[in-house]
Amino acid sequence: MQKKSTFYAVISIFFFWGFLAASNGIFIPFCKEHFQLSQFQSQLIDSTFYGGYFIGSLLLFLYTFIRKRDFVNEQGYAKSFSLGLIISAIGALCMIPSLHIGSYGLILTSFFIIALGFCLQQTAANPFVILLGDERTGAHRLNLAGGINSFGTTIGPLIVAFFLFGGFFASASEGNQIQLKNVDTLYIILIVLFLSLALILRFMKIEEVKKSAEENFSFAALKYPQLVLGMIAIFIYVGVEVTIQSNMGALLNTPAYGNIPSELIFPFISLYWGSLMIGRWTASAEAMTENKTTKKILLAVLPFIAFAAVYAVNYFKASSSGLDINTVFLPYLGFVALMVAVTFFTIESSAKMLLAFSLAAAVCMVGGMLTEGNLSLMFFLSGGLWCSVMWPCIFAQAIKNLGSYTSQASAFLIMMILGGAVIPPFQGWLADVTDIKTSYMITPLCFAYLAYYGWWAMQNNKGEEVRVGH
Prior knowledge:
It is built from 21 helices and no strands.
C-alpha cells in the first residue's frame, strides 16, 4: 500500500514537469511585454530552463567521471528525487521576489534553479517508478507517468493564463501588479507541493539496492555513428519542438494573425502541446494489445479522444474570454486525420516513422510560411503532431546495438536537451533582424536533418527494426 501511494505522489511530479515546460509559451510573451524585451531576450527563458537540464546532466556526468561513482545509484532513487524537489522548490521560492523586484536576470536564475532540480528528479524518476511495484508491470507505470506528463503540457498554458491574467473572467485590461500577485499564488502552491513530496520521500521506507561500485564511464560510446548522429538529432528535435511554440506568442500578436494579445494565446499554446499528447496516444496503440484488429481500432479512435480532451480543457476559458477557438480547433481535425494516416503506414518501423513525420513536419512548416491567417497557424501548430513520436524514434535508433555502452549513450542523449536552450533564442534573433514569420525558416531546416537521420537509420538497420510502441 505504501508503494502504491508513493507511486501516485511521484507521478504527480511528471505533471508539473510538463506543466512548467509548456507554460513557458505563455510566460515568454508576458515577460516580453512586462520587461520590454526583444524577441531574442524573451527566448532566454528557454535558454535558462533547458540549459539547466544540460548543466545538471553535465554535473552528474562529471561526478561519475571524476569519482567513478554514479550519484543517483550511490544516494538512492528516493533521496535523489527528494533533493531534486528541494532544489526546484528553492527556484520557485526565488521566483516570487524576482518578479516583484522586476529583475529579468533574477527570473532567469530562478528558472535555471527549477530546471536543475527537474534534471535530478528526471534522472531518478524512471528507475524509481519501476521500483514502486512489480517489475513486470514497470513499463505500464512509465506509460501512465508519460500520459500524466502529456496532460500537464496540455493544461499548463490554461492554468498559467488563469493565474497571470486574473482568473477565468478577468479582463484583458487588468494591470501587471494584480497579475504578479496571482503568480505568487501559483508558485506558493508549487513550493508546498514540491516540499511535501520531498518530505514523503525522505521518510518513506522503500527497499533500494544502492550501487557504490566503481563505474568506468568513458567517451567510448561516441565511436558509434548512430549515437553521434542521434545526439545531433535529439539536440535539433528538442530545439525545434520548443522553438515553434516559444515564438508563437509573437507570431499571434502580428496583424496577419489577428493581433492576439498575450492573455488570449493560451488555447493555441495548449493545442500545440496537446498535439504531442494526441500523437503519443496514437503511437501507444501499438503497445496496448497484440490483437491486430484492436490495434487498428485504437489507432483510429485514441487520437480523437485525445483531441476532445484538449478541446474541452480550453473551450470554457476561451469562451469566457470572448475567443472563438472553433475557427482553428475544428478544422485542425484534418491535420489529426492526416497524422493518423501517416502513423498507420509507418508504425512498424521507428526509422520509417521518423523519416515520414520529419518530412511531413518540414512540408507543414513551409506551408505555414507560405499561407496566412488561420490556415498558416494550423500548419505551424501541426508541428506538435509531427514532433510527438520523434523522441522515442530517435532514441531507439541512437542506442541500437550499443551493448554495454547503452547507459553511457543514454546519458549523452539526455544532455542534448541543450537544443531547447539554443535554437529558440536563435530564432528570436532571426525574428529581430527579419520578422517573426520569416524566422520560422529555421524549422523546416531542422526537420530536414531529422528526416536525414531517419533515412540513414533505415539504410543501416539491415533488416533489424525497433517498433515505436515497444
